[in-house]
Amino acid sequence: MPGAGATLTAGPAGGPPAGRAGADPLGRLRRLADLRNLSLVGVLAVLIAVGGFTKPDEFLSTDNLQLVLTQASVIGVVTVGVTFVITSGGIDLSVGAMVALASVWATTVATQDYGLGGILLCAVLVGLGCGLVNGVLIAYGGMVPFIATLAMLASARGLALQISDGRTQVVTVDPVLDLGLPDAYVLGIPPLVLIFAAVTVLGWLVLNRTTFGRRTVAIGGNAEAARLAGIDVRRQRLMLYLLSGLCCGVAAFMLIVLTGSGQNTNGNLYELDAIAAAIIGGTLLSGGRGTITGSVLGVLVFTTITNLFALNNLQSDVQQIAKGAIIVAAVLVQKGRSTP
Amino acid sequence: MRDAKSSATSRRNLLLGTAAAGALFAAGCTSNENNDSDGSSKPAANTSDDKPGKEVTIGFAGPQADHGWLNAINEQAKRRAKEYQDVTLEATEGSNDTAQQIGQIETLINKKVDVLVILPADGKALTQVGLKAMRAGIPVVNLDRVFASPQAYRCWIGGDNYGMGLNAGHYIGEQLKDKKNAKVLELAGIDNLELTRQRTKGFDDALKNYPNIEKVGRQAAEFTVESGQAKMAQLLQAHSGFDALWNHDDDQGVGAERAIKQAGRDDFLMVGGAGAKHAMDAIKADNTVLKATVLYPPTMAASAIDLARALGQGKGVGGLAELEIPASLTLYSAVVTKDNVDQYLPTGFS
Q1: Do A317 and B191 touch (CB under 8 A)?
Q2: Exposure string over A52-62, b if 16+ CB within 10 A, otherwise e
Q3: Which residue has the higher pLDDT, B63 or B169?
Q4: What Pfam family is a match, any one (chain B) (predicted)?
Q5: Beta strand spans in chain B (E)
Q6: End-to-end Cα separation, chain B, in angstroms
Q7: Among A268, A290, A247, residue whose Cα is nearest residue A126
Q8: CA–CA separation, B10 vs B4, rounded Å?
Q9: Is the pLDDT of residue B40 over 80?
Q10: Considering only alpha carbons, which residue of chain B is nearest residue A266?
Q11: Contact A261/B264, CB-based, under 8 Å?
């Protein structure tokens, strides 16, 4: 599957070979939704049904739906970036640490003097800076992504700890804090969810509708073939890690809005959550196939479980077991679908 | 091992000429070798005080300061050691990694420090290295997270996790005792830590005294702002009406209070834990749901340095009749409210 075909088919590979776009509305819709994600949609539907059944009043309330989406939004943005990297056959283990460093750096007293804009800019720049280091090490330094980003994980967390001196840096800039309060909702949608939605749509468009996206898939399928086909593989790789860093910077800003603070423990285990969400969403860990919708569905499944368990007053140990079981189930179902 | 050391100490003290043993010592003490006196007329003269004494090198192996309270622990220890002219502090880089901390402590043993103060990342896992230090003749002051064997330390000083829960429960109980069918929630810390289970046990035991109160929800967070916000948001969603909340940790409380604000809720009272400065400020200002916090004082690290110094100098603790420092000291988890917050504010950590 992740062969030459993948380099040509924009977007979700493996769908039925329907006619050209527009010829068959149903086929188009089906390709958009990606059949592989149907299993995840099914899991999500089951979870929602369970929620509606066990806690009808609380679970399906507007407040709760806003909450689930808000809590999915930070890790969701990170996952979109990671999906690109994994699609290209790489891995980014440093996303959690980049979120931590960006959130800590952006909440230092110095940046708070510059208000909302200063905090946002600082978070994004720190994310991009880390992404740049990752990208240069991997694309031009020839380092294995696993090792390069592991090194970034360690050093970014260390730097975050050093900058914050182990303290929780509380944000005092009102416009930042206000963004997280209900008054800032647009048509009942929290701003963080809007950012998440925008990043998702942009990510989907870039991966499925642009040359950049096609190149990403091509590199993941077969980097050597991609190089021979005239793609600047190094430059592409660099851009991908930059993209992941950018997403982490944005996510760090969102986390600052959400928690009103920066802390070196922020983004703890995001790398595993984001990779897990991407994989159960149908992105191949070996590269060559990636789906943004799948990744986002994966994030939503995890967040819904957490919400469901908290509503039913279950403890974190049970939540973790359930999370593990769902990862296994989702991957098994996909395996069943994708191997003929 | 320790006896040999303390008798050596007292021999030197005798040589130094502080020979005038008090009448009490002469009359009553049976196994007393610590019979020096600084010449004061108080009966228990052999106690530590601020006056410079024998030079003591204290090895300090603290935690990685990735949390407000742990950071305060390291700072308290270092600041206290600086106050004494006769104390040299050899502090290692804080670590959460068991193997790394063992290595650091072994380095301190090899440096032959006089006394060790250890806050183990994991008390059980570091027991062996505690034993090793004791066998090497270096008395260990075990700070907070307790070693598995009493042979691994000379003295333990730490907070009272059970008492923390108990006092939080009693405070909430007294506030709600006249309310019928009162409901309380608990936002716990890291569930796989023994201390979290003890805090919860104390809380539950206290609530048993108030049959009108029911604990309707509990979620464990991870002592971080992020987890505090996430778990609190869920709890608020799950419970549309409740009367009180106990949050185990003021650091995760920053996130919890944020979630409460985001949900626009103020129909309950909240009690925090640990005693962070921001929590005390909020209690003093009295403009949030946070009405109290139960102390788990990081000053214990400063007290540990005091004990280590006394140990190194072969002295007891001032204010007590004992000739030796105690084998264990459990601190009190006071409840800080608006009424007494000024008294505790100086101990608040940020």
Answers
A1: yes
A2: eeebeebbeee
A3: B169
A4: Peripla_BP_4
A5: 56-61, 87-91, 115-118, 140-143, 155-158, 182-188, 213-220, 244-247, 269-274, 290-295, 328-330, 335-337
A6: 40
A7: A247
A8: 10
A9: no
A10: B226
A11: no
Mutate to test the interface with A, among B237, B240, B281 (most CBs of A within 10 A): B237
Test A259 with B70 for CB contact under 8 angstroms: no
Residues 6+ apart with CB under 8 A from A113: none
Option in B70, B222, B254 nearest A261 (CB): B254
- Arithmetic mean of pLDDT, A211-223: 96
Q: Chain B within 8 Å of A169 (Cβ-Cβ)?
A: no
Task: Convert the pLDDT of each residue in B126-139 to its tens digit.
Answer: 999 999 999 999 99
pTM (two decimals): 0.78
B169-228: pLDDT as tens digits? 999 999 999 999 999 999 999 988 888 999 999 999 999 999 999 999 999 999 999 999
Q: How far, in Å, CA of A219 to CA of A229, rounded?
A: 10
pLDDT of residue B329: 95
Cβ of A166 within 8 Å of Cβ of B68? The answer is: yes
- In 3D space, the residue among B244, B231, B235, B259 whose CA is nearest the CA of residue A312 turns out to be B235
Residues of A in contact with B226 (CB under 8 A): 255, 258-259, 263, 265-268
The tally of CA atoms less than 13 A away on the side-chain side of residue A163 is 24
Select from A234, A56, A47 the least CA-distant residue to A139: A234
- Degrees (nearest 5) of the Cα angle B320, B322, B326? 90
pLDDT value at A174 more than 80: yes
Test mutation, A162, A261, A314, A320, chain B, max B CBs within 10 A: A261
Average pLDDT over residues A295-322: 86
Find the mean pLDDT for residues B74-80.
93
Measured in whole angstroms, the distance separating CA B52 from the mean position of its chain's CA atoms is: 26
Q: What is the residue whose two structure tokens read 């949900």? A: B263
Tokens at A102, concatenated: 């960006």
